Amino acid sequence: MSADFRHFYQKTWAERTAVVAEQAHLTAAEQALFKKYYVTEHHEIIENYLTDYPLPMGLAVNFVIDDQPKMVPMVTEEPSVIAAASNGAKIVKRAGGFITTLDRREMVGQIVLEKLTDPEQTAATVEQHQATLLKVADAAHPSLKKRGGGARRIRTRVLGQGYLSIDLFVDVQAAMGANMLNSMLEAVAKSVGVITKTNPLMSILSNYATASLVKAECTIPVGLLQAGRYSGALVAQKIAAASTVAQIDPYRATTHNKGIMNGIDAVAIATGNDWRALESGAHAYAAKDGQYRGMSTWTTDGQVLRGSLELPLPVGVVGGSIKINELAQLNQRLLGIQTAPELERVLVATGLAQNLAALRALVTTGIQQGHMHLQLKSLALAAGATPAELPVILQRLELAPQQDLATTQQLITALRQ
Ligand code: NDP
């Protein structure tokens, strides 16, 4: 018989977890997990709250960004991410650190009109009313203007097939701005409907935040890249070649970029930001000229290796659940940041550090050597090893012909006999 999920959202937490336990036939120990990770305040953040889901939080070190030393808190379940970020940052620190640039920080949202017989004419009408529409936008969220932000400009784009996008650019100050912008867009859409005598199809923020770009660069003397039997000049050459491959091959670009986002997402989560928004914008930007490419580029002249990464990274230091997330607040303190642009600079530098470490490992010893120790640790823990047993199990696992769960369990059993 299936449990009763009717009006699930109206149930108390105890009723809700009881329904889930019944449906999934949970044991008492399994049910106890709901209580173990339960946080009262988080009831209000999402619908149908059951419990919290813990992820490890750690600290990447060695970062110097725009001459400032930085500790970078990261939240990730992937064992090698923090070690790699710290490793990449250490090389760049020896070279003087990351330099970042950020020109402007505006969020963009769109109002889409459909079934237009003359979209160019409609676009011209909208442009004529730009000043009025900007006032309507500001009136929908007046506190933003009081803080020095607000609606900045309107752009129109004829999309073809009778569609027109009216893009509203807004200075959202310290927030990421999705909700604020959506309220402004809905108000503007009503006025656009009146002005153009149409019924707008939709109005919504765009995560393709091309007016919120931030760039990190580094210049590394090749001598700092030496790895084992590989000279620094050779490593630089190979990293530049790997960068070229990521520019021309989407298969490689996807993984190249996943490595960059390993770092960026981990800091975004640690600071309470919407990492899905960053992911979608970053990948769209990687395909800005029509082909999906590596987000970063690395070049060498034989003396230095130059790295560059530019991405749209619209994050906030207020808004969403940031203010009620104590750890997000703590992580802002660890980062020593107070403004959204400061956080954007850290994010982009972290992505470039992550990328450098991954590429250097890839073109020299291979990625597995560095990863394996941490992966084996996860394997040993998953197989039931206690922290006290770990050193011996890891030693034996490294020598074992197979490094899988069954082998690890056999090693643990043998150790305990
Ligand atoms: P909020 O809706 O929380 O709005 C920002 C809040 O921060 C406002 O209440 C604002 O106060 C307050 N605030 C305080 N100080 C400042 C300041 N200096 N500058 C700006 N605001 C300040 O958050 P956002 O609008 O930033 O939206 C982010 C959330 O939206 C994220 O959780 C995201 O996941 C979600 N979202 C994302 C979408 C997407 O990416 N496509 C779509 C929809 C939602 P006041 O009200 O007084 O101005």
Automatic annotation (TrEMBL):
It catalyses: (R)-mevalonate + 2 NAD(+) + CoA = (3S)-3-hydroxy-3-methylglutaryl-CoA + 2 NADH + 2 H(+). Coiled coil: none annotated. One of its GO terms (molecular function) is hydroxymethylglutaryl-CoA reductase (NADH) activity. Its EC number is 1.1.1.88. It is an enzyme of class 1 (oxidoreductase). The keyword Magnesium does not apply. InterPro entries: HMG_CoA_Rdtase, HMG_CoA_Rdtase_bac-typ, HMG_CoA_Rdtase_cat_sf, HMG_CoA_Rdtase_CS, HMG_CoA_Rdtase_NAD(P)-bd_sf, HMG_CoA_Rdtase_sub-bd_dom_sf. Pathway: Metabolic intermediate metabolism; (R)-mevalonate degradation; (S)-3-hydroxy-3-methylglutaryl-CoA from (R)-mevalonate: step 1/1. GO terms for biological process: coenzyme A metabolic process. Keywords: NAD, Oxidoreductase. Belongs to the HMG-CoA reductase family. This is 3-hydroxy-3-methylglutaryl coenzyme A reductase.
